[in-house]
Amino acid sequence: MSTEEIKKLQAERDRTQAELKRLRSYLEAEVERITESGEDSVDAAADIYEREKTLAIIQTLERKLAAIERALRAAEKGGYGICEICGEPIDPARLAAMPHTTTCIKCQEKLERTQHRKPSLFPPPRRTEST
Ligand SMILES: [Zn+2]
Predict the structure, then answer these.
(1) Number of structural domains in the chain
(2) With a threshold of 0.85, does the pTM exceed it?
(3) Whole domain around residue 76: which residue ranges?
(4) How far apart are the CA of 88 and the centre of ligand 1, in A?
(5) What is the CATH number of the domain that holds 70?
């Protein structure tokens, strides 16, 4: 990974951090405003929707920031561009499009499949034998 690429990644990290900070203070201000005014129910529904949207963006940015930081750490160790799961080199085109990625496309797809699958933590209830 070249110094220029690292700089690009660092700039992306700074941008993401700034955006996160902005959204968090926006959310805080919103919560304060609502607490102070004791909002009525019609506005509340719209406000909740807006807040959930903002929260979702914050979560996405947090994940992105974590990925950028992982990629930067990998770069420090000279392992940038290597999939952290299978250890294979990541497709350069994928890296160009998403410089903060730390997994190859195959592992990413596998990860997404497992994330979308509902965890079966709760097995179906066993039928009790009634006598
Ligand atoms: Zn992989």
Answers:
(1) 1
(2) no
(3) 3-116
(4) 6
(5) 1.20.120.910
